[in-house]
Design a protein that fits this description.
Blueprint lengths: L3 E5 L4 H15 L6 E5 L15 E4 L15 H20 L3 E4 L1 H9 L3 E3 L4 E10 L1 H5 L1 H6 L4 E8 L2 E4 L5 E5 L7 E4 L3 E4 L7 H10 L11 H9 L8 H9 L3
Parallel strand pairs: 1-2, 1-3, 3-4, 4-11
Antiparallel strand pairs: 5-8, 6-7, 6-9, 9-10, 10-11
Protein name: Glutamine amidotransferase
Keywords: Glutamine amidotransferase, Ligase, Transferase
GO cellular component, one term: cytosol
Length: 245
């Protein structure tokens, strides 16, 4: 099997490693089947589209809609690489699944309006498939029900999709929870690479990044512990299974 690539943009080594571990677990891929590309510090590996099965891009402390002058050197470098990779993804129909920051980057690349209108605090939310979503091959392979619980926590979101994008899932707080462009390029606002314990661990690392009030952190975590969000990770396993070649 040709390997998949996991794009990471988290400068914090411990958080990046936790994310890596989660993606390996939920995809079911072995270490040598998932190339780790940390674009906050390194260029994308020298790979041709035909060398890989697909690309997974997870969350980030970066916010793609921030003004250019407010972005760090690491963010500027990472986004330059991501947009270059997305050029190749679209041109060569490479399977792509982006989560959270992935919806901002793929959305921006494809002409969506990304802003802070539909940001959501750290929480478990109800996600509902559209008619197109219920018929989508990846979602069907993941066997997701019409409504399920997704984990979110984001400052920006898709405000408006371009006409050529297909809305696959929506939510009351953020209308675009998942979309597809092309035949197999996907992005989700919710986190398919996280379950309740891992999102709590992630949130502790970002307690001062504005996703919630630090004074309310434990209350937020207690509310999350009362929820279950075990279905979205099926998307990662389905992606790795459906597009392996």
């Amino acid at each position: 099997m040709k390997p998949f690539v996991q794009i990471a943009t988290r400068p914090e080594d411990d958080v990046a490693l936790t994310e890596r571990t989660a993606v390996l677990e939920f995809t079911g891929l072995a270490e040598d089947e998932l190339i780790w590309a940390r674009l906050d510090r390194d260029p994308f590996p020298d790979l041709r589209p035909e060398d890989i099965s697909g690309i997974i891009l997870c969350g980030s402390p970066f916010t793609v809609s921030d003004p250019a002058e407010e972005k760090s050197d690491a963010q500027v470098r990472a986004e330059r690489e991501i947009f270059r990779v997305l050029d190749e993804v679209i041109a060569h129909d490479v399977p792509f699944l982006g989560a959270c920051y992935g919806i901002g980057t793929l959305g921006t690349h494809q002409g969506a309006l990304i802003d802070r209108t539909y940001g959501e605090p750290l929480s478990a939310v109800e996600v509902t498939l559209t008619v197109d979503g219920a018929e989508d091959p990846l979602i069907r392979a993941a066997d997701l029900p019409e409504t399920f619980t997704g984990l979110v926590g984001h400052k920006e979101a898709v405000h408006t999709l371009p006409d050529h994008a297909t809305l696959l899932a929506s939510g009351s707080g953020s209308p675009v929870q998942m979309f597809r462009v092309g035949t197999r390029q996907y992005a989700t606002q919710f986190h398919p690479e996280l379950d309740i314990p891992s999102i709590i661990e992630r949130a502790r690392a970002y307690r001062d990044h504005g996703y919630f009030s630090p004074d309310e952190m434990e209350d937020v975590f207690d509310a999350l512990r009362d929820r279950s969000a075990d279905l979205p990770p099926r998307l990662l396993r389905a992606f790795a299974t459906l597009f392996a070649r």
